[in-house]
Structure formats: structure tokens, C-alpha cells
Design a protein that fits this description.
By secondary structure, the chain is an alpha/beta fold. It contains eleven helices and twelve strands. It is globular and about 60 Å long.
């Protein structure tokens, strides 16, 4: 009988796994671990914020009225109230944008960045293009890399998870007629620079750029993650489209009270002082991390977290958990991978304790 011919079966190439866009730092912060995975500041709430929140609890029988908070937030950023849309956190803002702009022909998300913008776009049925910034270039943004025909562009500043703060002029170069430019400034209030009174590189007060939408959050500095309060700033026509996609009374009365309180002159001054203190704590963390073997800090961190690269970081993260410390994995962010970790900035004593443990693990 003739020999049976040998058939070689070629395996189909395996596509790399898509990052889990729905994974966030709170999933890492298991009770009992020291939390360096979540970027929310934890400190006693000041009376000027706690008192209005407490008073708002006596007004819950009435439907929320966003008008006073819109006026207060607008005044803070030099805008009329109709250029402000209050949202149940920045995350709701991304959902509203994605739903309202279903006619966008080519949405582009600049990565690595917070994953909710892309997740919201995909959930709304968009096909999303990615621009991946280069870690070898410290994740700097070149506007020329964004396709000219992109009519919806989303970018973070400062960017989560890289902590890179892009120059305002670089972002402004992305604005053009016929394009909606969404700049996620959820961490803008954590930034500070010598000789700068306000938030360096923020576009929140820019009213001259066509199609600009700025996304803001009050979660990070004031520890309000559970309250859900943020807002969008932009052209009234665009904001009206987003508002049409928003449920009635989406922002609660206590959240509106918080937005009003956090927009006062005293609150902004306190915020600036916190940002300056954070900068010193961040410099301390960067210095300690830079002394460790094989650890590379990405770029020039500007926010409440630092991104590091080290081969074997996925295993390192598990070993840190075994020693009681939670840090944020990097492989769920497009453009990163398992050798990246994000570490929240804490007080210097916590940093010293953490880096001492990390050093022992690396030396083992």
C-alpha cells in the first residue's frame, strides 16, 4: 500500500491578547494591603467641604438643581454656566461623549491612557483607532502622529498611567474645525510647577479652540470617588448634545454641593497647596525608585502616580502583594505590558517603607 502522506498542520498565528479595558486600580486594593494602586488622596475632609455635604442631606426630598453648581464651576474656569455640564464623575462624561457622537467617522484614542474613554467608545459601537506613544521617547505626544482625518480625538493630560504632562501648545495643535478634541484633565488639579500660580498646561479656560472638550474630576484631590462628581467644559452646542444623552437628575444634590464648594477661591488655594506638597512627595518617591536595581521611572512624572518599568514586573507585583502592598498592573493599558507597574504617590514615610520592601524583594 502506498505510504500515507505526511500532512503538516500550520498553527494559526496567535494574536496578542487585548488589554482588559475594564480593569481598574480598585480591583488591586484588597482590604488589608497598603494601597498604592488607587490614585485617590485619602485625608480628613475639610470643614468647608464636609459642612455643605452634610447640609445637602437635609435637601434630598427635592430634585437636584444643577444651576448654582454650574455657575460656580464656570466662574472658577472663566466660563459662563452654559459651558459647563456636571456629570456623575468623569467616567460618565466619557459615556455621554461616546453616545452623543455616534456619527464620528474616525475616533482616535492616544494611549497609554485611562481606559474608560476607549471602553465607552466601543460600548457605543465605535471602531477605535489607537495612537501608541513611545516609551523610549518618554511617552511624549507628537501631534503629527494623530491622523489628519480623525474627527474625534481623546487624550489625557496629565496622562494616567504615565504621569506625563503634555505641553498645552502640543494639545492645542490637535484642535481644528470639524474635530472634537477631548482632553481628560481628571488629574490636572494634582499638577504644580515652580512660578506657576494655577494648573500648568491646563486647557480648562481655553474658549478659542474649536471642538475642545475638557473632562474634569473632583475625585482625586478631595477623596470623593464614592460621591461621583465631575464635569465637562466646552462649547454650549456640544455640551447640549452630551446633555441630551444624560439621564435626568444624573448628579445628586450632595455631589452638586461638593462641586460648588470645590470651586470657591479658598478651595482652589487649598488645592494648589496640596499639589505643591504632592510634588515634593513625588520627587521623594522618584528618587527612591531610581536607586533600585533595574527599575526605570518613565518620563518626568507630574501627577499623583509614577509609572515604572522592570523586567518581571508581573511577578514582582505578586510578591509585593504577599508582603502586604498593592500596586497597579500595567498590562491592562494599551501600549504597555506586563513589565510595567503604576505606583501611587503617598507620604514620604509610606514611600520609605514601600521602597525598603521593594529593595529586599529585588535583592532576594
Amino acid at each position: 500500500m502506498p505510504a500515507t502522506p505526511t500532512v503538516t498542520v500550520l498553527a494559526e498565528p496567535v494574536a496578542p491578547a487585548e488589554p482588559d479595558l475594564g480593569h481598574h486600580g480598585d480591583a488591586e486594593a484588597t482590604p488589608g494591603l497598603v494601597d498604592l494602586a488607587v490614585n485617590v488622596r485619602r485625608a480628613p475632609m475639610p470643614d468647608w467641604l464636609a459642612d455643605p455635604l452634610t447640609a445637602a442631606l437635609g435637601e434630598l426630598a427635592a430634585y437636584p438643581d444643577p444651576a448654582p453648581a454650574r455657575a460656580a464651576v464656570g466662574h472658577r474656569h472663566g466660563r459662563p454656566p452654559e459651558e459647563v455640564l456636571l456629570t456623575a464623575g468623569a467616567a460618565e462624561g466619557f459615556v455621554l461623549i461616546a453616545r452623543a457622537l455616534r456619527d464620528a467617522r474616525r475616533p482616535v484614542v492616544v494611549h497609554p491612557q485611562f481606559t474608560e474613554p476607549e471602553a465607552a467608545l466601543r460600548a457605543a459601537g465605535h471602531r477605535v483607532d489607537r495612537v501608541l506613544l513611545d516609551p523610549a521617547d518618554d511617552f511624549r505626544l507628537d501631534p503629527a502622529r494623530v491622523p489628519a482625518d480623525a474627527d474625534l480625538v481623546m487624550v489625557g493630560n496629565p496622562t494616567n498611567p504615565t504621569s506625563v504632562l503634555h505641553p498645552a501648545g502640543t494639545l492645542a495643535a490637535l484642535a481644528r474645525p470639524g474635530r472634537v478634541l477631548v482632553v481628560d484633565e481628571a488629574f490636572a488639579d494634582t499638577t504644580a510647577a515652580p512660578g506657576v500660580d494655577g494648573e500648568p498646561e491646563s486647557l480648562a479656560a481655553r474658549r478659542d479652540l474649536p471642538g475642545l472638550v475638557v473632562v474634569r474630576s473632583l475625585t482625586k484631590t478631595w477623596g470623593l470617588a464614592g460621591l461621583r462628581i465631575g464635569y465637562l467644559l466646552g462649547d454650549p452646542g456640544l455640551l447640549a448634545r452630551f446633555a441630551a444623552a444624560q439621564p435626568l437628575w444624573a448628579v445628586s444634590t450632595p455631589a452638586l454641593a461638593a462641586a460648588t464648594a470645590c470651586a470657591t477661591t479658598a478651595a482652589v488655594a487649598a488645592e494648589r497647596a496640596i499639589a505643591a506638597e504632592l510634588a515634593a512627595d513625588r520627587d521623594h518617591l522618584v528618587a527612591r525608585l531610581s536607586d533600585l536595581p533595574g527599575v526605570r521611572v518613565a518620563g518626568r512624572p507630574a501627577s499623583a502616580f509614577v509609572l515604572i518599568h522592570r523586567p518581571g514586573a508581573a511577578e514582582l507585583r505578586e510578591r509585593l502583594r504577599a508582603h502586604g502592598w498593592a500596586v497597579r498592573r500595567g498590562d491592562t493599558f494599551p501600549g504597555l505590558g506586563p513589565d510595567w507597574l503604576r505606583i501611587a504617590v503617598r507620604d514620604q514615610a509610606t514611600t520609605d517603607a514601600f521602597t525598603a520592601i521593594l529593595a529586599r524583594i529585588l535583592e532576594a
